[in-house]
Structures are given as structure tokens and as C-alpha cells.
Amino acid sequence: MARININNLTKQFEHVTALDDVTLELEAGQIVGLLGPNGSGKTTLIKLMNGLLTPTDGNILINDMEPGIETKKIVAYLPDRNALPDYMTTDKLINLYEDFFEDFNRAKAEAMINDLGIDPRLTLKKMSKGTKEKLQLCLVMARDAQVYLLDEPIGGVDPATRDYILRTIISNYNENAVVIISTHLIADIESVLDDVIFIREGKIVLHESAEMIREEKEESIDQLFREVFKC
């Protein structure tokens, strides 16, 4: 069962504080929305959880382990931009993921890619932006991971592609995992969220269940987001 503990986490870049004393506990069986405007610290937090950055202060524990080689075995990461080499074909990417990740489910990846009608011999260079986004998500979600870190998975793609991405996320994670979706497009994803985190200028300003927000505040997550982050 996945468990993430973030304790008094601070990250500074020169004279800029990207995250300021963040403390969170997240458990399996949830799709968590990490929500905030651009520049709020969402990507920094996800990169810290994935071990791509190191904290200035505080720590992160994923199943009682600090981010590193061991956590990469159980954490699936979707970056906020395409990180796959354009010269590779879908077939070669599947082989790469199968070689690199023990929890990669080749049959699941091939089924999703077949649903999309992607020619497995086609290089990424010849694919549209939306197709690249969907292919990268399929590779990530085909892992039987315990933690999924999805950074802006629906940013910059058309509404039909957004619907496909959300369906893929919902249908491919298991109850023993936690999914963290970073985005500022609240209305598009709020229907799938179990837990909500609002972050602004590196600080957590709200951490609440989606159901509690709807029942107690009697408004949508998108409405509350607009109130909290209004200019």
C-alpha cells in the first residue's frame, strides 16, 4: 500500500523559495489533485517526489524511503513535457520500458496503444502533439506502480484528448496506489478527484477531500479554486 509523508519540505533556488515548509500525508486508493496557478510550486514538488531535485530542508518519504533508486521502482512519472526521444518508434519505446521497469505491463501498454490506432513502427517525430501526449501517458500508466506522478497531463491538448487521458488514468490505477495529478485546469479533472491540495507561492493553502468541499462548502472545486486564487 502506497504512502507518502512530506515533512516541513522547503526548496530554494538561489534567492527564490519554490516550496515553503510543506507538510502532507497521502495514502493509497486516492486520485489527488495538486492544484494551483502556474509558478505555484507544483512541478517542483513533483520533481522532489521523483528524486529529480533535492530538498533544501525537510524530507519526503515514499513507503518510508527517501526518493532515489529504490523509489523509482515503485513511482511512475509523467513530466510536464514530452521526454521521449523523437527518433524512437512506439515498439522500441515499449521494449525500453519493459527493460527498465520490472512493473511494466507490456500487454496493457499494447492494448492501450492499439486502442489509439498508433502504428507501432511510427517514430515520435511523425506523431502529432496530442498523440505523443497519449503515448507517453500509456507507457506510464502501463506500469503497475504504487505512486503515479502526473505533471500537467492534460495541458495543451484538445478536449477529446483530455477525455481519453482521464479515462486512461481512472481505468489503469489500482486501489493500492496513489495518483497525483498536477494541473491548473480544474474543471476538466475535478470529477475524478478524491483529494484536493491547493498550493500558492510554495505554500499549501488547502488540503481537503473532494467530497468534503462539495458537501460542506456546497460548491465545486473549480468555484472554490477561483475564490481562493482570484486576482
Descriptive notes:
The chain is built from nine helices and nine strands. The chain has helices spanning 42-49, 69-72, 90-100, 106-116, 129-141, 159-172, 186-189, 210-216, 221-228; strands spanning 3-13, 16-27, 30-35, 57-62, 75-78, 147-151, 178-183, 195-200, 203-209. The strands form two sheets. It has a six-stranded mixed β-sheet, with helices on both faces. The chain is of the alpha/beta class. The longest helix has 14 residues, at 159-172. The protein has one domain: P-loop containing nucleotide triphosphate hydrolases (Rossmann fold). The radius of gyration is 17 Å and the shape is globular. Strand 8 and strand 9 form a beta hairpin. Helix 4 (106-116) runs antiparallel to helix 5 (129-141) and helix 5 runs parallel beside helix 6.
Short description:
By secondary structure, the protein is an alpha/beta fold. The chain contains 9 helices and 9 strands.
The largest sheet is: 6 strands, mixed
- The average pLDDT score comes to 92
| Largest beta sheet: strand ordering | 5-6-7-3-8-9
The count of domains is 1
Distance between the termini: 40 Å
**What Rg do the Cα atoms give?**
17 Å
SSE class: alpha/beta
The 3D shape can be described as globular
Number of discrete helical segments: 9
Low-confidence region ranges: none
CATH topology: Rossmann fold
Give the helix level as a range of percent: 25-40%
Text of the CATH class: Alpha Beta
Question: What is the beta-strand fraction?
Answer: 25-35%
Would you identify the CATH architecture? 3-Layer(aba) Sandwich
The CATH H-level homologous superfamily: P-loop containing nucleotide triphosphate hydrolases
